[in-house]
Amino acid sequence: MNHNERDRSADSIFVDGTEVPYHSAGPSEGDSPVLVMVHGSTGSTDSHYGYLFPMLAFRQRVVSIDLQLPTQGGALALEQLVRQVGAVIDRVSGGKPVSLMGYSLGAVVAAAVAAGRPDSVRNLVLVAGWMKTDAHQQLRNGVWRELRAAGSPAIRNYMVFCAFSPGFIAARTPQELAGMAGKITLDGFVDQQMDLNGRIDIVDQVSKIRATTLVVGCTQDQMVPRTHSLQLFGAIDDARYTEIDSGHAVVFERPAELLRLVDTFLRQPSASAAGSIIPTARP
Amino acid sequence: MNQLNTRPDAAFTDILIVGAGFGGLGMGIQLKRQGHDAFTILERADDVGGTWRDNHYPGVACDVPSHLYSFSFRPNANWSHVFSPGGEIQQYLRDCARDEGLLPHIRFGTTMLDARWNEADRQWSVQTSRGMFTCRVLIACPGHLADEHLTEIEGLSSFAGDIFHSARWKHDVALKGKRIGVVGSGASAIQVVPEMAQLASELVVFQRSAPYIIPRANRRYTEAEKRMFARDPSLMDRLRSELFWTGEYNFAQRRNVPRFVREAKEMALAHLHSQVADPALRAALTPDYEIGCKRVLISNDYFPALTSRNVRLEASALQRVEGNTAISARGERFELDVLVCATGFEATRPPFAKVIHGRDGQSLDAHWDKGMQAFDSIAVHGYPNLFIINGPNTGLGHNSVVYIIEAQVDYILGALAYAEQQQVEVLEADATAEARYMDALDTRAEGTVWLAGGCKSWYVDARSRRLTLVWPDYAYAFREANATFHPGGYLQTQATEAAT
Q: Does residue B231 lie within any of the structural domains?
């Protein structure tokens, strides 16, 4: 046993004929529900949850999916990603309700899962998520698609520029920024995710969410401005809201602060009353 | 609270704080701000500042950025650098003591010689170098870097030149053109060495074990930035948060998660490679244990100093001294005029524990014969109404200890408020609660790089191999666990029982 990977293991499940990998780690004893994590656009367990997944595994059982492009072709539908997450929940939950966390597009997927199967999701964490793509997002998404269609090398810098807060970027060296841009995945699945991002509308579903929910907005988010998180906060019955001083790429800018929010929330999900705004901790 | 003084020859004070560094001052400031005035602070030296008063060696600086290594409730817009020099930290603490009205509470030049709990009086009797004090509550703020550690080296006392510890720097000893030896390669040594390299005709550094060193991202704040902070203090809060969470990130390295250990190690070794070209010197400076097991150091000028022509790295310990000759464990001989012992501090067996005696008369040091331990990292069974700030399991390998100190101050304020509301006169940590707390700490510590990294460090008690100095989790987790008083973990004696 490699102690410091907390019994990490990899497995996969077939959904709609597509093999979907997922990772598991952390102690299975204890009463707290297993945490299922859903990454965002262009991401994976290793990239978006490279910090949170192993560190949360020191506190509880965690399972994280690597969303896949369905093999059958056609435009990507939110429902397909929802089915992938649902299948992993069915596989790992042992029939008991889970805690579900999603980031960015993963938060959209997680919200849809929680709405569609209220009995399987007890606690829900939505980080930098949204319900309905608005004109501000479509404008950015349109520029991205033009750059992509033109094969412009500027697309990587554009993505860094959109994802990170101004202060975070300003504090990096040119080499570090080039390294960040170079690590971005661009492939057919990313194209499909960006297309899906442009037409999200889960407004009707979100009102059906019954889970004890934590909504996390990022104060300097230029991709999913915090107003989207505030709208989720308003739409979900048992929701509480808090913020991190970060750009959209909070999983890279402030992973430890996000970990604290998730850790603290999952230990006592109802510690803050439904409808409350949790003040940001001031160290 | 309205206890009579049962020792007419002693000065009674409700709360007695020992030490006027970050811990003692932080405690005093919050008592004062909450309207408590019945406290006295004993300080053995003639000034406040703790380790920042003692350590004034050339090059002294802190490894935590200044906007984080300061009280959250007293931001300072005027820090000169991201990592400000030690003298500025010392001045900051002086300003804190003066501006918060603490100076009238402090007894300078007053050393605690012996403290004993009197079960009959339910008071502590504290013998000092300037008379006897009695108190209801004793708050010890010893710090981890308070008493210098001097390695046992054969013939050291017979050294024919000048010799001093880095924390007791002798500024009147002329160093220009001298042959200087620095013993040690820890946090103090790597700050001293670049300064000595500029003065010495020859400099030798005795290194028992090579440290990992990462770049120090330091720079001066501009006058405009300082005024910006002064004009909008909320910007200091934001910066502090950013620095804090950046520090917290690095706990993943200490937690020994391979990806983050690798990330840190690559950074440190790349720094070594970029600054040292000579393969033999590189090899001698490459640590043989896992990164983070010992304190990770930050410096931009230590490696370059070692490559100077007048500097020699001796990759073995100083073993013996004969007259002016310093002889290393490998048998190398060096003729020296000055020896600087940058050999660190008494950490796992702090001297303050020898003078504090509990309910049954045993010293805390004897009680801790298997290593330090305390319930909630603050209170010890058998030692009623004693709180220790920055004692067992409160150090951090990745973030600011001032944050820990503030959490402990909040805990003590909670305990005092509880005692007043519930009319409790004596609070003593319950032995079972203490054992349970330590078991939980052991579980948190399991597999961390401090225990699994294959090194000898001051974080681990040599007697028990237990991690007794550091808190083996995130700093935020310390605040969540230990900033709130837990009455359930204490044996409690009501004031009314005491009166009968």
A: no
